[in-house]
Amino acid sequence: MFENVDLKNGKEQDVIVAVINEIKTFGDDTKKQFTAMNKVYSDLQDMVKRGINGGLDEERFQKLADDVSTRQVALDEFKAAAAESERSHNERVDGIEVALKRIGKTNSESGASYEDAKNFQLAAISSRNQDMGFEAIEKLGVNVEEFEKYCKAIDPWIRKYGGNNMHQMDADAVKALQIGVDPDGGFNVTPAMSSRIIKKLFETDPIRQLATVESISTGAIEWMVDLDEAGAEWETETVATDNKETPRMDKKRIVVHPLAARPKATQTLLEDSGINVQNWLADKVANKFMRTEGAAFVSGDGVGKPRGILSYATGTTYGTVEQIDSGAADAVTAAGLIKLKYSLQEYYLNRGIFIMNRATVAEIMQLTNAVTGDFIWKPGFQKDSDATILNLPVKMSYSMPVSAANALSVALADWKEAYMVVDRLGITMQRDPYTVKPFVEFYTRKRVGGDVVNYDAIKIGKCST
Questions:
Q1: CA 7 → CA 17, 35, 273, 332, 398, distances in Å?
Q2: Does residue 69 lie in a domain region?
Q3: I want to staple 308 with a disulfide (CB 3.0 to 4.6 A). Which of 62, 91, 209, 299 is the partner?
Q4: Region of poorest pLDDT, from 61-70, 75-84, 196-205, 248-257
Q5: Residue-range definition of the domain harbouring residue 140
Q6: What is the CATH number of the domain that holds 399?
Q7: Count of domains forming the chain
């Protein structure tokens, strides 16, 4: 949490660090977070109101804005974690029901999870590029006991063995590891690590959290797109129509691209460490994956990486994303945000969510509606509510540009309709104890793609020149 906070100067750093330390003290006590944010936000509103005539103390305002936005980020992450925990709980309950129905498929008495074993098998098949249908995979059966043996064998292998040294392991451990071996000699990460990576991505990246996420077992996903409609016109009894307009279709394709990290540790650390090596690696890799793919979802050019929402030319035709001018140079304005909001079709507007940098949110905190005089940004004071701008939810993204001339600093979309994230099943890891001795390198890899899929469901707010 907060690992990617952009600190502009020492004073801001002191404020944010102090708030983060206080949040850590509170832990998951969201009630205290709400109370603290409510008080600071009231002070911020009073300062803005006083500053309308007497001038705004920019330094004091920035400190309060940093305090509020930092707490809002924490509350958003707590809420996302709670939602994910509930989803995971429901999946486990469903998994127990399935396991009870299929109890004859396993000879394990250890209580190992059937669902984890099945997910591991799916990842193993996927990493080997064995494109089998899910129905065929289901018929293979799942051996939970073998899976449990693999999980017990992988940790000592990571710490000490691998490559030509595998012969030093006992025969049962080597046999257990063969369950996860792929044609190149790498090993699949256990489902515990895979789930940990996915969970962390879910909690920290707003586009992945909001967009449609598809998991595939091939290198790309394709579907046909209905671009327009047939022509029609009135005709008379004696004059037939000349309208021959025929609707056309196009094919949309999203390719998954390799995303990799190569963390390393000394052999001595791996042998002597008292921590869980898999969890440590999972945290490091998850953070790297999160930041890299999050940036691509925003500004990626689609060449060897996902294509981002800001990479499209402005326009209202298929293949373009309309950009709405803010009406002021180097700044976001209330009028510009109102114009941006109502440029989105009503069908998508009802599910619209703003995404912007936290620095942009701080600017918007002092904007008011010219008609009502109300502040257009409001924090999420309830456990089940988000911070809002013009009564639409807002999420903060570290990858979005800050306000500047020509900057595309605000995005508004029905994200489920507008953007799709595509994951290729399986995360693989290879252990390399030779290339960078005395370090052991862990080559961890996944494949992910992303692209805008509905150009009418997204609008971009642009600062003027």
A1: 10, 25, 33, 21, 12
A2: yes
A3: 299
A4: 196-205
A5: 102-188
A6: 3.30.2320.10
A7: 3
